[in-house]
Write a structure and sequence with these properties.
Elements (H helix, E strand, L loop, with lengths): L18 H24 L6 H26 L7 H19 L1 H23 L6 H20 L4 E2 L7 H4 L1 E2 L2 E2 H18 L2 H11 L1 H6 L4 H27 L1 E2 L7 H11 L11 H20 L4 H26 L1
Antiparallel strand pairs: 1-4, 2-3
Length: 326
């Protein structure tokens, strides 16, 4: 009879998250809390209901674009056309309101934005064009169409009810904030509680493995671009309603601000990792920086420098985290 040798302990199948990975995942939480506390202690005007609701209202449009754009980035893409789609949607709604009525015009504008997002998805997947180049090109084209449609002039809306969505509210909170919260909940649920959400992570995390597992990568990525276009359209009609105007140069640079919020929130620029709640915190962190600098009367030049440094740090942490877990 021989002695039985004990089996060696099983090795873990996954690596423990590194400190760098933890910093990428939760650093935004500590940064947000620290900045919020610092501003609350620095000025009495910050921690008021009016100021906090104003921050949410001002960030609602870009927040909607950032939430839907997070899906694109996690899936391994990037949408640089959202600013142009934002402007074009507002113009479509403003131009057709007299014919279709307020809700008909807004519905058409959102539908057009959805189609433009689908076009981006087809170019980046079926067309095999790099997503950055494809959406940069379509953004330029869409902006050109907006200028051609308006002649470079403002499209003013005289129908009073058109401004209800952008200026009205419920229970003391603007409709824009309610829309933003709704998009947060929908995109968060879509990403974390559905099969489609798992496919999004798979498409951006390991494309070849996902394809071998039966995930239709091109379809998933195209769908995220369509959702991004839809988000830009919603934001566009919201902004157009607020000023009762459609204009071709609206939303210039908006896509960069949205991407900055997504990256600062910890979503990887290479895809496969991210969360809606972190994007929201990234957006609010940038908003607090702007709000705090204004309340404290600090030179806006330093605000830009500070924001740039935050973005650079977020991208660096993501790169270090990937190298550390490779």
């Amino acid at each position: 009879m021989t002695d039985r040798v004990a089996d060696p302990p099983l090795l873990p199948t996954t690596r423990r998250p590194s400190r760098i990975s933890a910093l990428r995942d939760y650093g935004i939480v500590f940064s947000f809390v620290a900045l919020f506390a610092a501003l609350a202690l620095s000025t009495d005007a910050f921690l008021t209901t009016r100021n906090l609701l104003n921050i949410l209202d001002q960030q609602a449009a870009i927040g909607i674009i950032a939430c839907t754009g997070t899906l694109v980035l996690i899936a391994g893409g990037l949408d640089l056309s959202t600013g142009a789609v934002f402007a074009f949607s507002g113009i479509v709604a403003a131009e057709t309101v007299d014919t279709l009525g307020v809700w008909g015009a807004m519905g058409l504008a959102v539908a057009v934005a959805l189609v433009l997002g689908m076009l981006n998805g087809l170019l980046a997947t079926v067309g095999r064009i790099n997503a950055i180049i494809a959406t940069l090109a379509t953004g330029i084209m869409i902006r050109g169409l907006a200028i051609a449609a308006t002649g470079g002039l403002l499209v003013r809306v005289t129908e009073p009810s058109y401004a209800t969505l952008g200026r009205g509210g419920l229970l003391g909170i603007k409709y824009s904030v309610w829309m933003f919260v709704g998009v947060i909940l929908i995109t968060g649920f879509l990403l974390r509680a559905t099969t489609f959400g798992r496919y999004i992570f798979a498409a951006g995390g390991n494309q070849e493995a996902a394809r071998l597992a039966g995930v239709r990568i091109d379809l998933v990525r195209s769908a995220t671009f369509a959702i991004s276009g839809l988000g830009a359209g919603l934001a566009g009609i919201l902004s157009s309603s607020r000023v009762a105007t459609g204009q071709a140069d609206a939303g210039a640079g908006l896509e960069i601000s949205a991407i900055a919020a997504i990256v600062i929130g910890g979503t990887s620029i290479l895809g496969g990792e991210g969360a809606i709640w972190r994007t929201v915190l990234g957006l609010l962190l940038l908003a607090l920086v702007r709000n705090g600098f204004n309340l404290l009367n600090i030179n806006p030049i330093f605000q830009q420098i500070f924001q740039g440094a935050i973005i650079l740090a977020a991208v660096a942490v993501d790169a270090w985290a990937r190298r550390d877990t490779a």
